[in-house]
Amino acid sequence: MPNDIIILGIFVADTSYRADRQPRMGETILGNKFTLGPGGKGSNQAVAAAKSGGNVGIITKLGKDAFADMALGIWSDAGVTSLATQHDESYTGAAYIFVEESTGNNAIIVAPGIAATISSDDVQKHTADIATAKVFVTQLEQPIDAAMTGLQLARAAGVKTILNPAPVAEISDKMLSLCDYVTPNETEAEGLTGITVSTPQDAERAAKAILSRGAGAAIITLGENGALYHDGIDTLHVPAITAGPVIETTGAGDAFNGGFATALSQGMPALSAVKFANAAAAISVTRPGTAPAMPDRAEIDALVKIDANHAK
């Protein structure tokens, strides 16, 4: 059965360390907590989309090791269809995540392993999967050529396209012109436009600059300030929703993108989809971890309803 959402991305095993601060070069410090769990933006977004009610498949490459077993297990539990291939010439990716205890802010190093070899040819093997979807999502943790091919195949088939331009990289206007929606955070928006984004007004200027390069719409996620949507006609600042104390922000952007993809795939208008995604992100930051923090559909719907009632 075809998947409504196809996500191209990578899986990595997250090794997460909580401490009062990062060590300086040459220094060893004691941490407060360690966890091992599933990560990678593509994988996180697939889990977020599935848990929020989407019918999602993930295209990626894994090794043949314990971390690959972790990936397949988390996808199965969340209801994600694996379109991954497994290889023995390299390892499944891993990530170092430092979480600052007092704020929940994070810094990350990703070693993608075999996923760094995802090629245009690998993506083309999934042409039929992409063409029969409603929404295609990619990020930039795998090679840009592969992402470009996925966007081209989706656009040719009339599939809605979402580019989450993370991590920051140089992106051509040609690539942006293939994107119905581009979803950077403040740092990524600055990387795309040269505009420092600190406020919703800054975000609107950056969004307009992204559209001037060919994108259909820009959604700039602003952390505690919510998100800014602009499509050349409508502009909406969606304030952040409070779902509880912030524990960790690591997976917030992935929760947003996964929720947004689900909402679009189920026919929600873009502005409603942004509000749905904002609620998904708000819940995710009240929990530690990345994929394990993704909320389910009932939780998101309940928070959207509460927020709508407050807005009346």
UniProtKB/TrEMBL annotation:
Keywords, sorted A to Z: ATP-binding, Carbohydrate metabolism, Cytoplasm, Kinase, Magnesium, Metal-binding, Nucleotide-binding, Potassium, Transferase
Organism superkingdom: Bacteria
Pfam families xref list: PfkB (PF00294)
Gene3D superfamilies according to UniProt: 3.40.1190.20
Cofactor comment: Requires a divalent cation, most likely magnesium in vivo, as an electrophilic catalyst to aid phosphoryl group transfer. It is the chelate of the metal and the nucleotide that is the actual substrate.
This enzyme's EC code(s): 2.7.1.15
Top EC group: transferase
Cofactor(s) this protein requires: Mg(2+)
Positions annotated to bind K(+): 250, 284, 287, 289
InterPro entries tied to this protein: PfkB_dom, Ribo/fructo_kinase, Ribokinase, Ribokinase-like
Binding site for ATP: 185, 221-226, 253-254, 278
Known function: Catalyzes the phosphorylation of ribose at O-5 in a reaction requiring ATP and magnesium. The resulting D-ribose-5-phosphate can then be used either for sythesis of nucleotides, histidine, and tryptophan, or as a component of the pentose phosphate pathway.
Family, similarity comment: Belongs to the carbohydrate kinase PfkB family. Ribokinase subfamily.
Protein name, per record: Ribokinase
Name of encoding gene: rbsK
